Amino acid sequence: MNNTVKIIGAGLAGCEAAYQLAKRGIRVQLIDMKPSRHTPAHRLDTFCELVCSNSLRSDSIENAVGLLKAELRLMDSLIMKCADSTKVPAGGALAVDRNRFSEMVTEILAGNPLIEIIEEEVTSLPDAPCIIATGPLTDGAMLDAIEKRVGTSLHFHDAAAPIVTSESLDMSKVFSSSRYGRGSDYLNCPMSAEEYFRFVRELVAAETVPLHEFETPKVFEGCMPVEAMARRGEHTLAFGPLKPVGLIDPNTGKQPYAVVQLRRENEAGTLYNIVGFQTNLKIPEQRRVFGMIPGLENAEFVRYGVMHRNSYLDSPGKLTCCYELKAAPGVFFAGQITGVEGYVESASSGFVAGVNMARRLLDQEQMDFGPETAIGSLGHYVSEYNGSDFQPMNVTFGIMSPLPVRIRNKRERYSAIAERALKRIDDIVSKGGF
Q1: What is the C-alpha separation between 323 and 307, in angstroms, rounded?
Q2: What is the pLDDT of residue 211?
Q3: What one-character-per-residue DSSP string does 291-353 give?
Q4: From CA 146, how far away is CA 295, in angstroms rounded?
Q5: Closest Cα partner for 189 from 202, 173, 206, 213?
Q6: Are strands 186-191 and 258-264 parallel, antiparallel or unpaired?
Q7: DSSP per position, 58-80
Q8: How confident is the model at residue 216, as a pLDDT?
Q9: Distance from chain centroid for Cα 23
Q10: May I ask the CATH class of domain 160-309?
Q11: Which of 116, 206, 356, 429 would you call most buried, defined as having the most Cβ atoms within 10 angstroms of its Cβ?
Q12: How many Cα atoms are found within 13 Å in the side-chain-facing hemisphere of 68?
């Protein structure tokens, strides 16, 4: 086994793995098909493009993804470093200027003398040592090669929300506020009951893009298209992404019946994402139906919502908790293709794969971060899940090891789990030279 690692795919996982390997003195060939070819969901020529939302979700350690971010920060994660440097206001969440974030990651890796960047579409699995981080949009010959080596892959459908320009919004109807007066990071489009129910009726009846599947497609619950959610019942959106609690419309002094929130997309505040509006509506229908939202009547769309198929491995029993292929030592997988779901989760799998690839090449014992940590629990989930319906998983406290004593208060319980996890990471850092 030579000491130059090939990493296929320069997304969140591949870039994090490359950074961790180079940091440990290992040479890397980072191979990506951009800019000569893009998937249907990608637009930028730079690495780590955030295809769906620009939010990395909660930053509180009493939320599992917030804890995962804290763990990665302690261990010098490239993705967290760049995300923190390019963040935009988003209340208690960490959201980034997606263009600046992508550019910063690309610049750091391109400037590292141990990382060789190769523009090439790879259609077969390379020999060890390699990390396959081709992402959920892996298709064609590469997907065939993976399935031949690992076994049949699974899939679900994912969706992205539209982005509009701030200058096209009717600010006489839109107001700035976060829930319960916690700042003014979001723009809010208030709806009366009459406006809401009229909108829901049109949304449910609107035309969608055919998915060309022979069966009803499986959709990841966290990215459920807004029209599919609305079909569950006319009140579903009002109790979901359009929930108005904690928001007062300054024009009326009252809480609206429903609220559509817009989250800043870039540092300049010229672009806004329609929060929770992942969709598979046809483009003319997006303009028509979303134009019924107060303040968005003349909205200029710089990106329409899209739906795409995501593939992932049937990982349990085939990957280790360090994301190494059991049948082929020195071959690692990373990112959403392993069955983790979410930006931070993808980066964390790349971190674990990169660290353990380096340790393999340096003749060191593999590092299991343990199920009592957020980062380790994801690896144990994808490698050890023993149910009959393996599906992608966001990090949650539910997949982490329970505490030895029961704490009834949820907030106190999550705080205790987080404290235990961060102590474990502190111990690893102090001993492992992170």
Answers
A1: 28
A2: 65
A3: TTSTT-TTPPEEE--EEEEEEE---TTTB-TTSBBTTSTTEEE-SGGGTB-SHHHHHHHHHHH
A4: 47
A5: 173
A6: antiparallel
A7: E--TTSHHHHHHHHHHHTT-HHH
A8: 45
A9: 24
A10: mainly beta
A11: 356
A12: 33
Task: Enumerate the domain spans of the chain.
Answer: 4-153+313-432, 160-309
Cβ atoms of residues 98 and 50 within 8 Å: yes
- Under 8 Å between Cβ of 359 and 403: no
Helices (H) then strands (E): counts for the chain = 11, 16
- Phi and psi dihedrals of 11, rounded to 5? -90, -160
Q: Is 240 helix (H, G, I), strand (E, B) or coil?
A: coil
Give, in words, the CATH class of 4-153+313-432. alpha beta
pLDDT along the chain (434 residues), means of 10: 90 98 97 75 81 89 96 98 95 92 97 97 92 87 87 73 92 91 87 97 93 51 83 95 94 96 88 92 95 96 81 91 96 94 95 97 95 96 84 87 90 95 95 68
Concatenating the DSSP letter of every residue in 110-134 gives HT-TTEEEEE----SPPPSSEEE--
Cα-based distances in Å from 327 to 7, 120, 135, 388: 19, 27, 21, 22
Strands 93-96 and 115-119, by their bridges, are unpaired
pLDDT value of residue 42: 61
Task: Specify burial of residue 409 (Cβ count, 10 A radius: 0-12, 13-18, 19+).
Answer: exposed
Q: Are 420 and 414 in contact (CB under 8 A)?
A: no
Distance CA(242)–CA(50), nearest Å, equals 23
**Which residue has 């319980």 as its token pair?**
413
Please list, residue by residue across 211-236, b when 16 or more beta carbons sit within 10 angstroms of its beta carbon and e when fewer do: eeeeeeeebbeebbbbbbbbeeeeeb
Residue among 32, 98, 55 at smallest CA distance from 342: 55
Token pair, residue 432, equals 């492992």
